[in-house]
Specification:
The structure holds two protein chains of two kinds. By secondary structure, chain A is mostly helical. Chain A has a single domain, classed as Up-down Bundle (Cytochrome C Oxidase, Chain A), CATH 1.20.210.10. Chain A has 21 helices and two strands. By secondary structure, chain B is of the alpha+beta class. Helix content of chain B is 39%, strand content 21%. The longest helix of chain B has 34 residues. The chains are: A mainly alpha, B alpha+beta. At the A-B interface, helix 5, helix 9, helix 10, helix 11 and helix 12 of A face helix 1, helix 2, helix 3, strand 7 and strand 9 of B.
């Protein structure tokens, strides 16, 4: 039985057993449901083998929403545990696992797929392309990400979750202090998902550089595409560091190397440095596309062009450069001395300047506008003050001498949630509401949407502002409990109430989706918000080939000009369109990757070797495969166009 | 409704700042030593400055939202196309740059202050205390007094203290909020933290960096006392406390939690702190201070750590 012992959860509890049963039943229900409704074929043909950027995008979205739920549950559990002194809801080991998975899930498996959903869905539409540059690579990116995510998420029912923090600092994460397979999951699952993300980066850089519609010079790209471009450049520069780092960590844990161990010349500081050399640019990978979404939404509902287009682009470029020169601010207290700290302190504060420019540009976009408070706009308007608050506390943290007092405290926790939630999460929800009609053909309910935005904001303020105060009062982060005498209890209870209100906001969001599916009108046309950029110029639902005729672009807001200034978007006749074929290979290869990862985590070497051969075989097969895609005939396009135009208020 | 939210936000910011400045002093903002004072001053300065920025942004936002909301404008109003204005953008860049330059100067100045013997104590010989962490305890070795304590720290007031930090295990962070900010203790390098207490009192100290299952309780008590009381304590320890043997120390660093305990002799004799060969600037500073120690302490037989 020794073989099976390793799969047992080392530190089980009722909650974990209950989730095992829950997960088992849900899986069973899904399988039975799909079989009952005879949807296996549909699922395989239309989704699993798809290379369509829109469908891949939607699968990213579903993953992100699922992980938002999982990470959110982790968050609520943490807040509940800390809401009372000496609470016994979670013990220290469980708490450590929960905050570790909360961090990893929210950053890598919620925020990342959410922004990649927007990359996938929007970038080809915004630049007037038929698909991404490498559609099949895109499918592989998604499935690798998905398998990495799946692998990470089974950790708590098979073998135990990682428990060394999402930063996984060595030597704590090394074999000596982290004896379960949890950290193996961290190393391998993130590695697999990370390879997917790296390929996404390469794919979108190529797409944006090579596949823009005629006339769309770089400085005429919509702002979201600009932000996606810069974020993907950062991905391509930052993610290899993560790949190498995780490979080194894996070798330390599985093969007895000494990169980060405490003896034989290993150095724990190397992990911290490399982690943040990737980790800091990572947060800009998340926030820049969020900025891009706000830059689409705010002009739309201010009914004005984006103020200071050039400075918006310039500020993003500067932020992306600076993001690689600030990593040491994550450990001012590691003893590198005042000179190094001063340099990183100044470079960090410098980021406030381009970020400030963006905030002012959004404010000036509102100036002389005709502002309509729709749900996406409400999120954007709430984002500005709340994100500013998070930004200025970031400047405070950048003052390295003072950071000796903020570091590792709830003040820091408050700060990064204060930038990530109003910055990234609000943008995701605003963008989701904004683009929902384009994607699904009906609007989300505005009334429920506004309720969600307000509830979320009230919950956010209650949950995170108190942490600034308890942090300054000496509450360290990652403590699973504290004593009554510390005086943290009242504010932590407020935090819990806030977190619960945020959970209600999530429920409202889900209810809104349900409600809108049932009751929302379907005859909304292709441009329900009276928007400005190319993605709104095609039909709703978007046909497989996106645009029947490649659009001609002459300004930053081509679609707006076509509506208001008589610009002709679609010139010429419909021609046959070349499209890529579907392929099951990315999915199959990713499944093998999943098994390979699992074998590595549990050191089942024969299986690891077999699956590795399988992966190589898939790659070899792909290298020799001849697949030139297919053509959609002119008749078929005309038919589709005619059908779609029926529900549309304007022709091409 | 929008207006109301803005006011709620504004009131909140003001309330927070009053809480921070007023009624109940928060640990970090209630400094009992020069280093913590420097940091608390920086924090308050930045809070006020940042509050100013938040208020300006809020004011502009509320103004434009109210003035240019659709319901406040004629139905046929068509917003103009405005590309941007060099002067306006220069101001938006210029003012933040000035603020950042100002804060950078403050930050750099404070960096050098907190990384040196505390201001006002430069003429005094610092008391060197080796603080090492093991899962999940703190060991304080006083080479000068030939004393070692576990989980509590007695220090004389008005004397600069130089903590030499390292760890038997995961990275920890040595933090006494009321005396000054934290610094990492690591297994492969000694770090130095300069602190001083300018009044007697009892302070909370803890490991601030997550280090595994016992992290939450990884705390210690700090008592600052008059030099006379301190001397009395040292003598008392020498009379009453047992000697710290290698076996006993091995037992002490086993994972777990312990109460307070006191020993004569330090573990530095048989378990020297890690060599620092990673060539960071901190190492240089440290070696300098060591060589100074050598010169100044050569006549004293208490200088145990001179042998490395």
């Amino acid at each position: 039985m020794d073989f099976f012992d390793r799969f047992a959860v080392p530190h089980p509890s009722f909650l974990i057993y209950a989730s095992m049963v829950g997960i088992g039943l849900t899986m069973l229900a899904i399988v039975v449901g799909i079989t009952y409704f005879k949807k296996w074929g549909y699922l395989w043909r239309e989704w699993i083998t798809t290379v369509d950027h829109k469908r891949i995008g939607i699968m990213y979205l579903l993953s992100a929403l699922l992980m938002l739920f999982r990470g959110g549950v982790d968050g609520i559990m943490m807040r509940y545990q800390l809401s009372m002194p000496e609470n016994t809801f979670l013990d220290s080991q469980h708490y450590n696992e929960v905050f570790t998975t909360h961090g990893v899930v929210m950053i890598l498996f919620m925020a990342m797929p959410f922004i990649i959903f927007f990359f996938n869905y929007l970038v080809p539409l915004q630049i007037g392309a038929r698909d991404v540059a490498f559609p099949r690579l895109n499918a592989l990116s998604f499935w690798l990400f998905f398998m990495g995510m799946g692998l990470f998420n089974i950790s708590f029912i098979v073998g135990g979750s990682p428990d060394a923090g999402w930063t996984s600092y060595f030597p704590l994460a090394g074999n000596e202090f982290s004896t379960s397979v949890g950290t193996n999951y961290y190393m391998i699952a993130i590695q697999i998902a990370g390879i997917g993300t790296l390929m996404t980066g390469i794919n979108f850089i190529t797409t944006i550089l090579k596949m823009r519609a005629p006339g769309m010079t770089l400085m005429k790209m919509p702002m979201f595409t600009w932000s996606a471009f810069i974020a993907n450049v950062i991905i391509v520069f930052a993610f290899p560091v993560l790949t190498v780092l995780l490979a080194m960590g894996t070798m330390d844990r599985l093969f007895g190397t000494n990169f980060f161990t405490t003896d034989n010349g290993g150095m724990d500081m190397l992990w911290a440095n490399l982690f943040w050399v990737w980790g800091h640019p990572e947060v800009y990978i998340l926030i820049l596309p969020a900025f891009g979404l706000y830059s689409e939404i705010i002009p739309t509902f201010a009914r004005r062009n984006l103020y200071g287009y050039t400075s918006m682009v310039a500020s993003m470029v500067i932020i992306s450069l600076l993001s690689f020169f600030v990593w040491a601010h994550h450990f001012f207290t590691m003893g590198q001395g005042p000179l190094a700290n001063s340099i990183f302190s100044i470079s960090t504060m410098a980021i406030a300047v381009p970020t400030g420019v963006k905030i002012f540009n959004w404010l000036f976009t509102l100036w002389k506008g005709k502002i309509e408070f729709t749900t996406p706009m409400l999120y954007s308007v709430l984002f500005i003050p709340l994100f500013t608050l998070g930004g200025v506390t970031g400047v405070m943290l950048a003052m390295s001498a003072a950071d000796y007092q903020y570091h590792n405290t709830m003040f820091l926790v408050a700060h990064f949630h204060n930038v990530i939630i109003p910055g990234v999460v609000y943008a995701m929800l605003a963008g989701l509401t904004f683009y929902w009609p384009k994607i699904f053909g009906f609007m989300l309910n505005e009334r429920l949407g506004k309720w969600t935005a307000w509830t979320l904001s009230i919950g956010f303020v209650l949950a995170f502002i108190p942490m600034y105060i308890t942090g300054l009062d000496g509450q360290a982060r990652r403590m699973y409990t504290y004593s009554e005498s510390t005086g943290f209890s009242l504010l932590n209870m407020v935090s819990f109430v806030g977190a619960a209100i945020m959970a209600i906001a999530f429920v409202l969001l889900v209810y809104n989706i349900y409600y809108s599916i049932r009751y929302s009108p379907r005859n909304i046309g292709s441009d329900p918000w009276d928007a400005r950029s190319l993605e709104w110029a095609t039909h709703t639902p978007v046909p497989e080939y996106n645009f029947a005729i490649t659009p001609q672009v002459a300004s930053t807001q081509a679609f707006w000009d076509s509506k208001k200034n008589g610009h002709e978007l679609f010139k010429g006749d419909i021609e046959k369109i070349h499209m890529p074929n579907n392929s099951g290979l990315p999915f199959i290869m990713s499944c093998i990757f999943f098994v390979f990862g699992f074998a590595m985590i549990f050191s089942i070497w024969p299986l690891a070797i077999i699956t590795l051969i399988g992966i190589l075989a898939c790659m070899t097969y792909r290298s020799f495969e001849k697949d030139h895609g297919r053509y959609i005939s002119v008749e078929e396009i005309k038919e589709t166009e005619k059908r779609l135009r029926g529900a549309k208020n304007e022709g091409r | 409704m929008k207006l109301k939210m803005k006011w709620i936000l504004l009131t909140m910011v003001i309330t927070i700042s009053t809480v921070l400045t007023g009624c109940e002093p928060l640990l970090v903002l209630d400094p009992k030593g020069p280093q913590a004072k420097t940091q608390a001053d920086d924090i308050m300065l930045s809070i006020w400055l940042m509050l100013g920025i938040v208020v300006v942004v809020l004011a502009i936002l509320v103004f434009v939202l109210l003035k240019y909301r659709a319901s406040n404008q004629p139905k046929d109003y068509e917003p103009p196309h405005i590309e941007g204005n060099h002067l306006v953008e220069a101001i938006c860049v210029g003012i933040p740059i000035l603020i950042v330059i100002f804060l950078s100067i403050v930050s750099v100045k404070s960096n050098y202050e907190v990384e040196a013997t505390p201001a006002g104590y430069e003429d005094q010989e610092p008391l060197i205390i080796y603080a090492s962490s093991s899962n999940w305890k703190w060991h304080f070795s006083y080479p000068e007094e030939n004393i070692e304590t576990v989980n509590y720290l007695y220090i004389p007031e008005d004397r600069p203290i130089e903590f030499k930090l390292y760890s038997y295990g995961p990275i920890t962070s040595f933090w006494i909020p009321q005396l000054g900010g934290q610094k990492y203790a690591m297994s492969d390098m000694i770090t130095t933290l300069h602190l001083a207490a300018d009044q007697p009192g009892e302070f909370m100290g803890r490991n601030a960096n997550f280090s595994g299952a016992g992290f939450a309780e990884n705390t210690f008590e700090v008592t600052a006392m008059t030099p006379a009381e301190y001397q009395e304590w040292v003598e008392e320890v020498h009379e009453t406390a047992p000697r710290l043997t290698e076996e006993k120390f091995e037992e002490l660093i086993e994972p777990g939690h312990l109460g307070r305990s006191t020993y004569t002799g330090t573990h530095l004799e048989f378990a020297p702190p890690p060599e620092h060969d990673h060539g960071s600037s901190d190492t240089e500073v440290e070696e300098d201070s060591h060589s100074e120690d050598h010169e100044k302490h050569d006549s004293q037989d208490t200088n145990e750590h001179s042998n490395h």
